[in-house]
Specification:
15-stranded mixed sheet, about 20% helix, globular
Length: about 350
Amino acid sequence: MARSTGRIRSELDFDRDGKQVGFLRLPHSVHRSAYGWIPIPIACIRNGDGPRVLLMAGNHGDEYEGQIALAKLLRQLEPATVRGRLIFLSSANFPAAMAGMRTSPLDDGNLNRLFPGDPDGGPTAQIAWYIEHMLLTQCDYVLDLHSGGSSLMYLPSALSRRHADPARMRHALELLQAFGAPISYITDAPPGDDLALPAAAVRQGVMHLGTELGGGGTLTMAALRIAEDGVRRVLARIGALADQATIPPAPVTRLLQVRGPEYFVYAPDSGLFEPLVELGDEVIAGQTAGIIHFHDTPWREPSMAVFQRSGVVLTKRMPCRTERGDCLFHLGTPYEEGSGP
């Protein structure tokens, strides 16, 4: 039976007004430190009643745009500039963030595939359990800042899952428009996909807004600026900032959708990946997406990866060395209302 509060302890009092910084203490007993704990940085800014927001990045440790954007915002905001409460979890999977890896070096845990977590599991499962059961339960919104990490590069995008409830869907679209990324898209939850943070947010009745801000294990000035401005505009839109006069207006976002496996292209073989299209290109079904060259047997004819449908290229693989099953591209198509196939 799950324990009521888990093993992780917070140094902060989330119900106290003011600005607090400190750590979540995740017990971790190892040879070097028998009674040690992992310090997961966390901060809270509260000023009376108002929206309750979890600002989260570092779900994957090699995605840097959100980690930096939230750190800068935390340093800039003071209680008088906030309405309600903002919780900052800028390096959510802290061991992965310290290692600059998608997954934790402690247990190979992918935080975004471990919700609802386990209070008695490994380090990453405990973090997932704490986020879902101790943080989301006291929030109205979660802003979950991702990018493509080390293996993918995205057109800077914001995203939301498709909601069956029309009012909730309208609100999600309003938040995407407020964020103002060059691309916004709506995704369908694959059957049985209950292990990611958006599913955790649904279970806890929390409105989720995600991003894919760039990637490739790098950081660009443009992607960081999109993240910084977008977060501020969303906070202003929901009434979480006291002074909205200095918030830059949102640029027009192009609204797309991502639906089903045919939107994705995977490597058919292992080898060296030669892309034949770039981010933002319009492609058609049957078009060759990329070539896999066999460097171990260069006399062989290469293998071809093909787009299964038409659309806009939203992401592409960055490393040239590729194995069968690696994601090479995924597409978006114009947004259509409704939750059916």
